[in-house]
Amino acid sequence: MTFPPDPVRFDEARPRALTVALDTAASGVDVLLVRDIFGRLSLLLDDRSTKVATAKTDAWRERFTSTLGRYAADRPLLLASSLFQPDAYFASARAVAELGYVPEVGQGSIRWLDNTVVGGDWARVSTPEVELGGVRTARTALYGFKGGVGRSTATFMLAKHLARQGNCVLVVDLDLESPGAGPLLVAEDQLPQYGIIDQLVESALGNEEGLDLVAQATHFQLQNNGELWVAPARGCGAPGVEYAYVDKLNRVYADVPGHGQGDFADRLEAAVHACEAAVARESRRPDVVLLDSRAGIHDIAAVAISRLCDLALLFGSDNGQTWAGYRDLFKAWLSSGQAPVIREKLRMVASMVPDADRPGYLEIFQDHAWECFSVLYDDLVDGDTGFNPSPEDDSAPHSPIPILFSAELVGLDAVATPGWDERAFVRAAYDSFLETTTNLMIEGPR
Questions:
Q1: For 91, 145, 224, 355, which has the most beta carbons within 10 A of its beta carbon?
Q2: Please, is 359 exposed, middle or buried when counting C-beta atoms within 10 Å of its C-beta (0-12, 13-18, 19+)?
Q3: Tens of pLDDT along 102-131?
């Protein structure tokens, strides 16, 4: 194999492969670019209806390998006619059209198939379809790119607010590495025997039937027929048996070949369904489900936002880390062709807003948010129609929902301080957030 004089790096490999794919598609053959888990690329040509001369394939293969160096796969060019099951690649649901490429008459298409160990579910956006009693439960995911932005506390406040309005609310604590909302809502001695972690482990073996997964929130008085249920990350365990949480955590993310729920994303979705069904058996169908997702670019967050929710509340403070992280995530959605679908369910939350300079802070925050979110918006020229809200549009995904910063909340032990959420400074900090998110979840279109 002839390598380029300078090493090709990961970020350079795909653009280089695309230049070869463009020339190949110009000959009229459909092209599929495939990237493996190490980042190496292969050029797959669909020659089942368009025959390709051997001399051409040899030339493309040599150009592909010499252009990509070590990022060319061991089999850099493959023909559909030589594959045992070509539709496993060419008809894969994960293959997406190359962004920005529109073939002209006589040219072939170019599609992209990316294989990853983790994170693939960020690019698989879908709408929840599960129904209980013929009506789909509304789900909202609460997510922060970085931890420490008050996401779990906001989940607690929102859950109690919605329940006091007469809704049956279920909170699912998906922050498995650092359970947050569960401990805030349920006293330790009132936990169900099993948690989300158990559902994920047992379902990998088809052993999930009969798990006790939900409990009613403690220290919450029923009002207006409202109910508040919690599916914690961890349970209390069986009497007399050690609850090996860390050992379970080490196993939840692995896919299990040959099982109907072997894929982690499928198991996580089934776990949320099981919790909803458990509440329905105990009482009634949940009106609202809050998914307290873990922070970072993680598979749990990917499934919660891309697959499980109707609304995703994205938490952040106005700093470079927040915007750099979300921009990377938005670019991934853009490159996978998911921007038009995912942007409809996003809304930014400005956490820890300084009360002393609230208007000025939020104005700057909104400008920075628009710069970041514009990655997901359509590029429009005069006369074009599409989705490109202005920076000042208060209904746009980038428009921040504020939560005010209160020094009294720093270091507060919420579990050991009953009634802390009823204090005036807490209500003032969350009033706007609760009103706006409630309208989005309950009164707004879904």
A1: 145
A2: exposed
A3: 889 989 999 998 876 555 555 566 566 545
